[in-house]
């Protein structure tokens, strides 16, 4: 019984953490040299067991490990901190928070140093590997294309192999949508050389608004990967550049932008109605209504509104296969220069069949 009592007393009394140091300077380290590590020695100078409960670094660049089992009085443990310098050139000073069940309950460690930048090369300039070719991205994205105009963008492909690669330009061009074109400054990419591809989006060839996108295959005779997946996309917006001060414009005003169904049963169909009024002095045109997913089905009653006229947008939400908190959106594009793109939000708390209650339709 005395032995049991003594052990319980030892556990009950507090442990105390003493560190051999609380700071470490790595000095100058090379970016390409890999992760570097330092060990901080922990001594329990208390009379009870000490447990390091958490070691929390300030960022993902620091990876800590530590002694997980309780440290007996007079015994030692270790906290290790590893810093990865890759893509982090320059001076660094990182804090690590230590929590224990003893004294002190919270303390801080600091690691510091300077990362010497490595020389940049092809893999930095063109990080994406596409067979024998390298590129910055497989996506050709145009942030803004006016509905009555076109935009161009250049992309570079680099041949990282020791043999020439031929671009099958005509075969690639034939896959592009009617609103997109691609040209090249040459069709043979010599070893350790590059080619410039020029992409064009012509919004006048596409009767659509907001986000448009299509994938295509970049075709080559590359023995590794002859066909390379690419995507071309862009945001088509109205060009309001011809507006002048004092010109009459439409104003698209909704009665509300959010509808919350509250609790609804799974597998039910729920419809809400948003009222849109043209409070401006020119004709309002609804260009497009687009739902965030197939569970919402917006249907505007009218798409052209005279000044002062209203219409409704019925949004049907189907909760089939859904569960818990839901948040869906419907985007409405109009020719209102101040509110060309508005978002209607649909919320609901979908109940599982076993928790569904009578009358929880959300209508």
CATH homologous superfamily assignment of the largest domain: Immunoglobulins
Instruction: Work out the radius of gyration.
Output: 31 Å
| Helix-strand sequence | HEEEEEEEEHEEEEEHEEEEEEEEEEEEEE
Largest sheet: 5 strands, antiparallel
Question: What does this entry look like structurally?
Answer:
The protein has helices at 2-12, 122-125, 169-173, and strands spanning 17-19, 23-30, 36-44, 52-57, 62-66, 76-83, 90-100, 106-116, 128-130, 133-135, 139-146, 150-159, 165-166, 180-184, 188-189, 194-202, 210-219, 227-237, 252-254, 258-265, 269-278, 284-291, 296-300, 304-305, 310-318, 324-334, 341-351. The chain is mainly beta. It has a five-stranded antiparallel beta sheet. Strand 9 and strand 10 (133-135) form a beta hairpin. The longest helix is centred in the first third of the chain and has 11 residues, at 2-12. The radius of gyration is 31 Å and the shape is flat. Mean pLDDT is 92; it is low at 1-12.
């Amino acid at each position: 019984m005395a032995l049991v009592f003594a052990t319980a007393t030892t556990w009950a009394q507090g442990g105390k953490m003493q560190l051999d140091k609380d700071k470490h300077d790595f000095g100058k380290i090379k970016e390409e040299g890999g992760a570097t590590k330092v060990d901080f020695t922990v001594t329990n100078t208390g009379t009870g067991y000490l447990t390091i409960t958490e070691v929390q670094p300030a960022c993902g660049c620091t990876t800590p490990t530590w002694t997980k089992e309780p440290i007996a009085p007079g015994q030692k443990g270790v906290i290790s901190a590893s810093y990865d310098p890759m893509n982090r050139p320059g001076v660094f000073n990182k804090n690590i928070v230590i929590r224990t069940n003893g004294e002190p309950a919270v303390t801080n460690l600091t690691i510091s140093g300077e990362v010497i930048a490595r020389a940049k090369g092809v893999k930095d300039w063109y990080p994406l590997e596409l067979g024998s070719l390298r590129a910055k991205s497989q996506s050709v994205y145009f942030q803004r294309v006016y509905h009555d105009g076109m935009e161009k963008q250049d992309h570079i492909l680099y041949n990282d192999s020791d043999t020439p690669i031929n671009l099958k330009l005509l075969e690639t061009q034939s896959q592009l949508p009617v609103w997109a074109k691609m040209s090249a400054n040459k069709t043979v990419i010599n070893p350790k050389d590059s080619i410039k591809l020029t992409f064009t989006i012509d919004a006048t060839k596409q009767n659509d608004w907001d986000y448009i996108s299509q994938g295509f295959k970049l075709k080559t005779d590359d023995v590794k990967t002859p066909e390379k997946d690419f995507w071309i996309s862009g945001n088509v917006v109205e060009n309001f550049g011809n507006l002048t001060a004092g010109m009459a414009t439409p104003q698209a005003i909704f009665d509300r932008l959010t509808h919350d169904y509250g609790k609804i049963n799974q597998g039910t169909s729920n419809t809400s109605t948003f009222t849109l009024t043209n409070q401006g002095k020119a004709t309002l045109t609804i260009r497009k209504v687009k739902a965030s997913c197939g569970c919402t089905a917006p249907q505007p009653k009218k798409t052209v509104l005279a000044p002062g006229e209203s219409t409704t947008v019925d949004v049907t939400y189907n909760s089939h296969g859904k569960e818990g908190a839901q948040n869906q959106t419907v985007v409405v594009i109009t020719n209102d220069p101040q509110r060309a793109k508005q978002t209607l939000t649909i919320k609901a708390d979908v109940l599982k069949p076993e928790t569904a209650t009578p009358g929880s339709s959300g209508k």
